[in-house]
Amino acid sequence: MPIYEYQCTKCGEVFEVFQKVTDEPLSECKFCHAKVEKLISQSSFQLKGSGWYLTDYARRNSSGPSEKSKNSASDKSSETKTTEKSSAPTNSESKT
Question: Is the pLDDT reported for residue 9 higher than 70?
Fold first, then answer.
């Protein structure tokens, strides 16, 4: 339901009213009952429902590997390389 702004010609009070598009515009101030004019203002709207929040978007890894999984994969490969190197006997171990 749209929000309309009105300004009183007598007291100068500006107020908002929820009205249907089909409703007649207000003609009298709700404070002093003088004549009001409908103002033209920036429209506002609310995004309701799913898909409008960060948590509603698809995860990156659903279409392919994400940056995090790429980094962890490269970390694992570097870990296995260092593990392989460290598991090889050193000169002092082979002599005994």
Answer: yes
Q: Residues 19, 1: contact at Cβ < 8 Å?
A: yes
Assess contact for 31 and 8: CB atoms under 8 A: yes
Say whether pTM exceeds 0.70. Answer: no
**Pairing mode, strands 36-39 and 14-18:** unpaired
Domain segments of the chain: what residues? 3-39
Contact at 8 Å (CB) between 46 and 39?
A: no
